Amino acid sequence: MSRNALSASWRVLAILVLWAVSSGCTASAQADKPIPKAENGIIDLSSWSWKKDGIVPLNGEWSFEWLIAPTKLDGETSFEGSTLEVPGIWGNTNPSNETELKRQGCGKYGLTILHKKQKEMLAIRLPNISTAYQLLIDGKIELTRGIAGLNGGDTVPYQLPATVYFNANDNRTDLELIVANFDHRDGGIRTEIVIGNVDHIQKLQTKHAAQELIVLGCLIMIGFYHMGLYIVRRKEVANFMFSILCLFVGIRMGLMGEGYVLQWIDVMTWEFATRLEYISIVTAGWAGFAFFQSMYSCEIKRIWYKLSSWIAALLIISVLLLKPITFTSWLPVFQVYILIFSAKALVGLVLSAHRKREGAWLSLIGVAGLVLTIVNDMLIYNGWWISIDLLPFGLLFLIVMNSFIISLRFSLTYERAEQMSSELTEWNNSLEQKIEERTEELQRSYQTLEEAKVELERMEQSRTQLVSNISHDLRTPITLLQGYMEALKDNVISEPAQRDNTIKLMLSKVEGLNSLIQDLFDISVLEAKKVELTLENIPLADWKERLTEQYEMEMQSKGIDFSCALAPEETLSESVTIDVLRMDRVFANLLYNAVRYTPNGGTIRITMSTDSVHSQVEVLVEDSGAGIEPGDLPHIFDRFYKKDKSRHSSSGGSGLGLSIAKEIVELHGGTISAFNPQEGGSAFRILLPMTAK
C-alpha cells in the first residue's frame, strides 16, 4: 500500500473522529468564558447569556437523597442527605457522605439553578437515564419516563431522551429528578443534562438527530447493499458477514441515543429493547470477526471462527433466557468476548499486511479505528469515561477502508484486463488453433470481460475470412505474374515489343493486386468498427446536385442515359447527416457496378424520396441491365461473392465493392438491399435516417 493511501486513510479517520466529537459535544461551543459547575446542589447561571453563550451542561454536585426505608415518594420516606457528582453511575460514584450506593435502588437528585428572569422559555435536554425517572420543576411534575417506583415491583423501566420546556419568570428554578433502577446493572445519570434557550436546545436536538439518522441510514443502506451482493453471489460469504455487522450495529444505534427504533415501534418494551441491544452487540462482534476470517483465512484459522460462533451462541441464549438484571450484569463477559476476538483479528491483519496480502493494510487501519471506538464505548458504559458513542463512526471508518480495498481490487482488475488485451493483439497473429486454445482459456478465466470476448471473436472471424479471401483472390494473379517473370527470365519473350506488353500486363496485375489489398484493408477496418465518420448535414437537393456533377458527364460519354432526381419535390427541404466522402464511395461502387452490366444506350437513374412516417430517406439506384439472378440476391453483399452467371467474374472487380458499401451504409445507421424490378434490370435501395429538424 502506498504512503499516499495511508496518509489519506489517517486523514479520513481524523475527520470522522473530529466530526463525531464536535457533533456530539453537548457543552456550549459558543461560550468564551468558563462553564459554571454545580456545587452543593446549586449552579449559578446569573451571569450566563443564553443567546450569546449558548447551552450549558448541568454538571457538578447535585443534592442527592438515597432511599433508606422505602415506603412511597413523599415526605414520609426517609432519605439520607448528601451530594452526588453528575453525570455518574451508581456504584462508581459515591455520595459526599461516603455512603456506598448500590447499583439498584431509588434516589432523588436535586439542583437549584440561579439565573436572570427570562421572558422567553428555557429548555432542558435529558439523555437516557437508567432506567425510569420523574422530573419536577419548581415542584411540578413535567416529565416521566416509565414509572419510578420504590421497589422492583412498582418500577416500570423505559428509556428515551426528552426535552422539557419551562418558564423562568423568577431568579431561580428548582429541579428534582427521581431515578429508579431495579432492572439494569447500572443506575443513575450516565451522560450530561444540558439547559439553554429553546432555539439552542432545538438546534442541539436537531443536530444529534441528523447525525444519528445519517449514520444509521448509511449503515442500513450499506448493510442491505452487501446483502444484495451476497444474494447475487453466494460464494462471497464475506459480503453476508459485513452486511450482518452493519445491520446489527445500526439496530443497536437505533435502540440507543435518540431511540429511533423505540419511537418507530412504540409497542416495544424496555425489556425487549434491552435484549435486542445485547443480542446486537454479540451478533455484530461475531459477524465482524467472521468477515475478516473469511477475507484472510490463511492468517485467521477457521477454528477461531468456530470458537467465536459457540461463545456467541451461548451469550445470545443467556440473553434470551435470563432476566435483564442478570445478563446486563454480565456486561464484562460480553466486552471481553469482543476484545479477545478484536485482538485476534488485529493480529491476523498484522500478519496479512506483513505478507503483503491485497488490501491488508487498509483493513488493518480500518479495524484499528473500529477497535478504538469499541474501547471508547466500553469505557462509557462502564462509567469510567465521559464521552460519546463513537462505535457507529468507527464502523463507518471501516466501511471507508473497505471501499478503498474494493477500489484497489478494481484498479488491479482493470490493469490485468489491459495487459491481457495487449497479449490478445499479439496472439491474433498466431495460428488459428493457438488462438482457439487461448480463447477457451480466456473464456474460462475472464467471464466478466464480455466486451473483450466479443471483440476477440470479431477479430478472429475477420482474420479467418481474410486468410480465406486472400488465398481465393490472390492465387490467380500471383500465378500469372510468376509465369510472366519466368518467361522473361528464360528469354521466352525476347522481342522488345512483346517484353513491353508483358511488363504492361504485369503492371496491370500489380495494380489490381494493390487495389484488392486496399479493398481488403478498408473492409477489415469497416467491419471492426474502427472508422470515425466525419458527419455533416447536407440537404437532399445539394446531394442530388453533387451526384449529378460527379457522374452525368462520364455516363453520357459511355453512351448511358443518367439521371438523378428528387421525388416528390417537397423533399427539397429535407436533409440527411452523412460522411459525404464515404457515401461517395458507396455510389461509386454501385454506379460503376451498374455501368459494367448496362449495355450501350441503357439507362441508370438515382431517385431520392422521403418517408416522413418512419423519418427515413430512400435512395434508389436502378439500371436497365441484365438484372441479378434470384439465387444470387441473398449473397451479393458477401465478401468475394461472384458467380459465373449474369455477373461473371471475368468482368473484373475484387468482389468487395458491395461489402464495403454495405458496411458504410450501416455505419450511418441505415440499410442497403438489392432486388430486380418488374420492368427489368436491377435496383439497390438505401435507407438512411432523416435529419431531425
The number of distinct structural domains comes to 4
- The CATH architecture category of the largest domain equals Up-down Bundle
* Shape summary: elongated
Largest sheet: 7 strands, mixed
- Give the distance, in angstroms, between the N- and C-terminal Cα atoms: 55 Å
Q: Level of helix content?
A: 40-55%
- Figure out the total of helices: 17
Q: How large, in whole angstroms, is the Cα Rg?
A: 44 Å
CATH topology annotation of the largest domain: Rhopdopsin 7-helix transmembrane proteins
Which ranges are low-confidence, i.e. pLDDT below 50, for 5 or more consecutive residues? 1-14, 16-31, 69-79, 643-652
Strand content: 15-25%
For the secondary structure, the number of strands is 21
Structural class, please? alpha+beta
Indicate the mean pLDDT.
79
Q: Look at the structure and give the CATH class of the largest domain.
A: Mainly Alpha
How does this structure look, described?
The protein is α+β, with helices and mostly antiparallel strands. The protein has helices at residues 3-24, 50-53, 198-232, 237-255, 260-264, 270-295, 302-321, 324-327, 331-354, 360-381, 391-427, 432-445, 450-489, 496-527, 540-557, 580-597, 657-667, and strands spanning 42-44, 56-57, 60-69, 78-86, 88-89, 105-114, 122-126, 129-130, 132-137, 140-145, 162-166, 172-181, 188-189, 194-197, 536-539, 561-566, 575-578, 603-611, 616-623, 671-675, 682-689. Strands 1, 3, 4, 6, 9, 10 and 12 form a seven-stranded mixed sheet that branches. The chain has a five-stranded mixed sheet with strand order 16-18-19-21-20. Helix 4 runs antiparallel to helix 6 (270-295). The chain is elongated and about 140 Å long. Mean pLDDT is 79; it is low at 1-14, 16-31, 69-79 and 643-652. GO terms for molecular function: ATP binding; phosphoprotein phosphatase activity; phosphorelay sensor kinase activity.
